[in-house]
Amino acid sequence: MKFTRRLLLGVSAVHIALRLIPISREAIPGVSGIWAANMFAQELSAWFVLLNLIGLVLSVRRRPLGVFFCAATLFSLLPFLQIREVNRVMARQWTEAGMGSYHLAPPGAVEVFAESFRLSEPEQKGQNLSISLPMLYYSPRIRAPGKASIVIDIHGGSWQHGSPQQDEALSRYLAESGYAVFAIDYRRAPAYVHPAHLNDVRDAITWVESNAGRFRADPTRIALVGHSAGGHLALLAAYTQLDPAIRSVVSFYGPTDLQKLYQHPSSPDPLNVPEKLEVMMGLRFGNNQQAFRDASPIRYVRPGLPPTLQIQGSRDHIVPEQITRSMHEELRRAGNRALLLELPWSEHSFDMLWFGPGNRLARYYMSAFLAETLR
């Protein structure tokens, strides 16, 4: 009993520390791992609630420990206590953006909490397609009358890493929802620099449109979905390709203003983002600021863009939320249909944890957005 209490006390203290102590690349060697642990600490909150409740029961006759576990339980519940406000803000945005045909019924705090303990993921495997760069195809499990709408998934990885398999759980989920999903690839920095990555994405979109008939998919109804660097590429492709087939775009924490991101990175910055940007561009920032601006999705905001959903964690230490919020406001000012899902507790790459509260809400609003824009 004594050992169990001490173990629970230690686990709970580590959880609280990970959520409260600032991350500093300069101060803590191997900070990327600590940053990742910080991200998981947010998304595993339901499990920490359970552990703290067990600790509370075991410490009922030990007042100091009981008070600690009671406070730790409330602390772990914070993400779920914020869900109601997140849903309220999204309902207002949904109405203001004229998203009228799909009725929102988002999951509440109790439902999200309960689903945090469901560890299963969709099981379908992607089909490798033989083209110049790797591409995976996930066939729709639900076949509606007619051809399936298309979702093109673009992985992240600082423009230097990653693969189409990286977003496999999401691709499976979308396929099970009835979409024909193509997870595409692009060449990597530093061997290939901007705009090579964007050109690869454009070529992949063209290939999907030309070959959609082979997959009983509709080449006139396409949504782009990207994560981090992939979100940046998805937005750039959607805003510069002038393709009426691209009906909407979803960006998970994608950088939208590279100039501002270089000049004002997050503090602390666990990945040294300015260095990543220079590697991706193949240029030093000092004498090439306009090139960084021209590689930014915000540079191309104008009326008539495809509807845009941005998904952003407020605790993001890679892409600060202020940059994503500025992009959202620019889109709205230009008269575009734009939504911004802000998750107050979430870090960058929060959706790596499939069953976390951040990913649960992100999946719901992405699904509603795709149903609205690909109808």
Description:
- The chain has 375 residues and is of the alpha/beta class.
- It folds into two domains: 2-76, no CATH class; 82-373, Alpha/Beta hydrolase fold, catalytic domain (Rossmann fold), CATH 3.40.50.1820.
- It has 15 helices and eight strands.
- It has helices at 2-20, 31-43, 45-58, 63-76, 78-81, 83-96, 109-115, 168-176, 196-211, 229-240, 258-263, 273-281, 289-294, 321-333, 357-373, and strands at 127-129, 135-138, 148-154, 180-184, 217-227, 246-252, 308-313, 338-343.
- The chain has an eight-stranded mixed sheet with strand order 1-2-4-3-5-6-7-8, with helices on both faces.
- Helix 1 runs antiparallel to helix 3 (45-58), helix 3 (45-58) packs antiparallel against helix 4 (63-76) and helix 9 (196-211) packs across helix 10.
- The chain starts with a helix and ends with a helix.
- The relative contact order is 0.13.
